[in-house]
């Protein structure tokens, strides 16, 4: 099993519901976020392109944050999800330095925090909070090892990209373009 | 026109607009760690070669500095942790892929050895202050008898420590400035050079000063070579690496990097040491102090500039 | 999936005292709050859910409020069976938690008082505040009549107070949602099809093949089901055509973005009609069968060629033809979206008419993928005496606008200014659930009127700017803490939703139904409030409708079968539209008789002078007007608005992204605060753009105070729609000041 998220930039309107849903689901303190929205504008009036994207930890297959963690607090499950165990984390900051997506942050309580793909919800058979709430239904989540899953089908049939592939981390959040 | 912005979220404390995760304690620690590595390496090497009598500063007086440097370094490191009271988690596991992990373990071994090393010279360094307990005297004698063994351990450990201070940074692919294989050797050489400089400062005999002057000169030349090598590597690198290099050669860190590290910290002391070896009357303390300052600034520049460089945003 | 650490902790936490012991051991090292929290999270995550419907905007999505065992609200999740949200709330609905948690909320009643010559508020008890209101209201009622008590309201609290006002005999009631928002489209569509568009709009977006948005920016407005259905339409390969001078989010999803010159939309639509009719690609059968006035229309648009429109709109004739053909080929599954905030230039009812006529030509009204026939179920009225008949009310006040179908706020407010010929003196004003300083333009008029009032009461959950003008401020509890009216949705099929308090009201805040009842009893109209708790009203109504509160508590939303017939036109038989003629009126005799243009015409509107830029404003998806700016969760997403400036303009004025500027409008009104520039290609060189609802002046809004500019304060020139009284607000122009104009003045 290899979890991945697929996000359709052709549908995303950047409403940020994913951001606030994550905040309430995961008790992310105000002023912090585990996911966020970027906007890219290209061209000149009136020939313009706009891309809105919901971004987060990419749960990289080749996760540098897991490798550099001195205590094993940052770890990767067999399903690909990268997690941080707060009470094993010493707050050294190495994983933050190692992340090409700058997706990790120091929780005000001291440990390092980030997106968990809502691992606690997956265990109950629910989708991640961001995916379940998205009003444009532009976010998909599933198992890439299963060739018939929705995410596999989407990646088979649509054009996609990942963020900063040159960093070589094999990110598992895919953007349909 | 191209525009890239955050619609919402982000502005994470200490993350945006650029990382401020590692602060001055880390730079200080990298410097002190490198310095201690240099000192312990030379102490070990001289001892293994059996030249303790000829070079007393290297094995005796300068080595007082290393436990102090290591202790201060460790305190600085601890100070910069944000989840401090879990630091013991470092020692519940060994993670081969994490430089921080094996660095922590090396420190756990080398720091006590550095204390024991100094203790083995206790009566020679502090002849006036007799040890009051017989057991301690016995222990000192025991250590004295095992100095060579300690020296054998110190040589590889100090090299690991020196290289580790560089690899700690270079292991981060995400920070293009750090992500090059030169940083490990560079920091090792710089650490050895600061170690040699400290020995020059504390050496009493002309012979010892000259030997370490020569060593330091060779190390400085090597260090300059490594820096050129590093910049050339970045120059031939990807866009993010070019941007990173720009910070050093044509950006906000250029003054610090060229002024303090390359000119004042390397070229100037090299010339002075060379002239001194040629017989010119130059107070050796001057190049030695310049080397130490240069070594320190190098760490500060690399740690701070490195955190500005990123892939996205 | 392998055993994860989280699971491990969970199991051991559930299992034995081992973890408790190790937790204590960890406590020696200081904070082990994280473990405690994990244990708590996994052992005690027994959330209770309570049915509600959202009040962060007017869409009123049904949802579940989740509270933990300590009774604090953790999250709000959409109700899966709700046709307004299909289980997915928008960011504001999800962030509704912040409305409850906001520590800046109004906490107790406040009464204006003078201390050392300075006016200020003092805290008061409910008893005192309500007694004061009742005695003031009664006094005015006796002296001037109940009609002199006016109500400006919005949303659920408004309904309860409307009941109060009607009970004591006042119909002097208005809401910004009409004359400052969607009024013109209701007039334009009812003139044409005989019925309002209404809310939610009966647009069959999910099945459409072509969606045409004219200045409507779905995606930036989070009209939930519309956004969701637009996304479905994108999946289904529908063509989207967006007409907007600004490159909106919707424009970026469109096959055609027509970057129109502002204020020329009617010209474009006339040209579209011209193409549809000239090329014979309109829905002939539909027009023949259901419409009247086609020949007049054909004659009227015959000269409005795409070439004619090009000179006005700046859109190439070719593009106009191509888009018209695209619509025709999708017909009848095409939607010319009526929009929502449509008070732009004063000829807005006519623009709405043009939209309606286009929809008729494309045969989309009453067709799949066009507009469906909406239906709602009537909620029975709780028994109460009949309302007294006021001598005058909103109708009389707005009489000079013959087709106004609701109260016009600005006209009601004008009645507060004393003058010889004012037949309708307004003496006291109650404002409930709307921040009128940011929802009604022309601040000078507003302040003059408020100044002249004898008494003013504001009911809100937050210390909005408007509370600063009040004599008495009443703290309303949020929608999460109260019962409210049953929501009867107008949709594809009728449904109802209930709002049940998830927690008790925080601080000393009270629900509006309670406030209305208490004032009513004090004013001697207690008979209209024959209940002790509004719950009884809902219980009674639900029973009448064949369900019960117990059932609704479990399901939140209940659907009822349609009774009015099929959702789309039954084309086998005749169909009578609820117009005067029973047909779709392309040519409007009603308008003709009232002295207005029977067919829409293009009129030229003012353009910016040299150095001035048209002030355009819009929505951000994470905010509802000005009411959410201080919500901690939503403020976290967007804490201020930016001034969008085209790079060409930025180059001329030397502006950079992030630079703070001030604005001055054509009437020399200067913005109170500054705004940060965003240099972007998304906006035209002749206009600037900002999101509405920022620039709060009330210091008690700790997060929102002084952040960004309030666009409404710069809207001082209002183009009033002569047909229905809408206040056109898009004809204001600003110049950009880079130096602080308030340097020597205190704000």
UniProtKB/TrEMBL annotation, chain A:
Residue ranges occupied by any 4Fe-4S ferredoxin-type domain in the UniProt entry: 3-32, 48-79, 80-109
The UniProt record lists the keyword Iron-sulfur: yes
Family matches, as InterPro entries: 4Fe4S_Fe-S-bd, 4Fe4S_Fe_S_CS, ET_IronSulfur_Cluster-Binding
Organism of origin: Lutibacter maritimus
Signal peptide limits: none
GO molecular function (one): 4 iron, 4 sulfur cluster binding
Entries under CDD domains matching the protein: PsrB (cd10551)
Name of this chain's protein: Fe-S-cluster-containing dehydrogenase component
Pfam families: Fer4_11
Record keywords: 4Fe-4S, Iron, Iron-sulfur, Metal-binding
From TrEMBL, chain B:
Keyword Cell membrane: yes
Membrane topology designation: Multi-pass membrane protein
Subcellular location: Cell membrane
Annotated protein name in UniProt: Formate-dependent nitrite reductase, membrane component NrfD
Keywords: Cell membrane, Membrane, Transmembrane, Transmembrane helix
Coiled-coil spans in chain: none
Family under the similarity heading: Belongs to the NrfD family.
One of the record's GO cellular component terms: plasma membrane
InterPro entries associated with the record: Electron_transfer_protein (IPR052049), NrfD-like (IPR005614)
Signal peptide boundaries: none
Transmembrane segments annotated in the record for this chain: 26-49, 61-82, 102-122, 151-172, 178-203, 215-235, 255-275, 282-302
PANTHER family: PROTEIN NRFD
Automatic annotation (TrEMBL), chain C:
InterPro entries named among the record's database cross-references: Asp_de-COase-like_dom_sf, MoPterin_dinucl-bd_dom, Mopterin_OxRdtase, Mopterin_OxRdtase_4Fe-4S_dom, Prok_Mopterin_Oxidored, TAT_signal
Gene Ontology molecular functions: 4 iron, 4 sulfur cluster binding; metal ion binding; molybdopterin cofactor binding; oxidoreductase activity
SUPFAM superfamilies on file: ADC-like, Formate dehydrogenase/DMSO reductase, domains 1-3
Cleavable signal peptide: 1-25
Record's keyword terms, sorted: 4Fe-4S, Iron, Iron-sulfur, Metal-binding, Molybdenum, Oxidoreductase, Signal
CDD domains xref list: MopB_CT_Thiosulfate-R-like (cd02778)
PANTHER family: TETRATHIONATE REDUCTASE SUBUNIT A, TRIMETHYLAMINE-N-OXIDE REDUCTASE
Family: Belongs to the prokaryotic molybdopterin-containing oxidoreductase family.
Name recorded for this polypeptide: Thiosulfate reductase / polysulfide reductase chain A
Organism of origin: Lutibacter maritimus
